[in-house]
Amino acid sequence: xxxAIQRCECGWGGHPRSDFQQHRGLTLxxxxxxxxxxxxxxxxxxxxxxxxxESGRRSACANNLKQIGTALSGYQAxxxxxxxxxxxxxxxxxxxxxxxxxxxxxxxYNSNGxxxxxxxxxxxxxxxxxxxxxxxxxxxxxxxSARPLWTNTTGTIVxxxxxxxxxxxxxxxIFRCGSDTKQELLTGxxxxxxxxxxxxxxxxxxxxxxxxxxxxxxxCNSWKTARADRRMFGQNSMTTPGHVLDGLSxxxxxxxxTRFHRIGRGVAWGMRANLMAGVDPVRGVNLWTTDTxxxxxxxxxxVARWREAAASMHPGGCHFVTADGATHFFSxxxxxxxxxxxxxxxxxxxLWP
Amino acid sequence: MTFFNxxxxxxxxxxxxxxxxxxxxxxxxxxRGKVTLDDNPAQLKNVFFYPEEGxxxxxxxxxxxxxxxxxxxxxxxxxTEVTKxxxxxxxxxxxxxxxxxxxxxEELQQPQTRKxxxxxxxxxxxxxxxxxxxxxxxxxxxxxxxxKSKGR
Lengths: 353, 152
Fold this sequence. Notes:
By secondary structure, chain A is α/β, with parallel strands linked by helices. Chain A has one domain (about 60-75, about 80-345). Helices cover about 25% and strands about 10% of the residues of chain A. Chain A is elongated and about 90 Å long. The N and C termini of chain A lie far apart (about 80 Å). By secondary structure, chain B is mostly beta strands. Helix content of chain B is about 10%, strand content about 30%. Mean pLDDT of chain B is about 80; it is low at about 10-25. The interface of A and B includes residues 143, 150, 190, 290 and 316 of A.
């Protein structure tokens, strides 16, 4: 014992250990157990912290949508009608099928109605930067020339859109939802053939527009001929409150989407291009790709295709704003009859979950 | 010596591992069937089961094979894996000709090479006009959807 002290078997602080301390040191196992317990506690705390952070982001995202809904009402108060989802799409068919009234426009603007809301979103300066007399995107065709059904072959792009396209690359926080972890600038995705503009900023919010009319090859310009299945917005739509027979508070005006669509690509706020048809929730919410070619971890948040754009990376559903400016969170388990009745503006059905 | 023994450690581990996630709240039952058009097998048709009021879930879909047969895949919000089957309940069924998915990558467009022989009458293409109704039950027999052209 005495020898051991001479070899300076020291306790903490350099003092010789007492007999008691000599027996009560921390063994390696005990240290490991304590570390494990701390690890477990931290592991339990972390998801809670993450979910609080997500709920903060979620309410910020809903607030953006609320402001856009208010801007919509402001626009309607000024002009007497709501803005169109966009004007002069280059990817509407030109007389190859369907109702000739639904042909693509002679003048191609590829404009986006979100731009027309900018003055009501404290973004007058960005609005003024755009040249509203020329096109916003020079995407000439919706798809390859082998598929003329989906292209506006007779339309002409108005002016040079390069200046407008540059402004469309500004990342505006009002159109951005922090829960979305996907790309902020639109880059290569499927179906991009003919899309000349890369690097424009994506939006997490878009107008409700028709992508799903049953049995029609091309629904891109169907707003003016639509009847019971009319959505609130479309190409060149001229919606007034009078069109919305189901009532402004019972009709979806805009909805959330994610910034990456597996078929198609994301949606820009500053222009329209191929397959940026708006949000059409009639087939469900948060319909992610199940394609095994995509890594399993990347599928969450990746909308399967442009028709199914209604989505968000909030847990369990996404937000919509009704035409009266109120935001609502809809579960991804909401039934189709409910989604359809709130999407159609004049089907004389009003169903809530 | 130590106040933790192996049993306590095992217990802690079990509790930790035991906190797994559950599946969705709907029950899905397998549905197989066949589509015929004027008594011929109808290949390359999109079949969609549209839930009637009171039926839960987001419906189910399938693309028919060359012999007209199909197996339903449920549409499930939030899912990142394919779910076979449909939620039990009553459905309206639409059948439409296959068209290439607009914007789809080349490898998803292969069925294009097999051209559908007969076109489905437009009455079957819309959930508002289709006469096809079916109840999906837990002990389903194979479904046969018999489509008729006008005047047949």
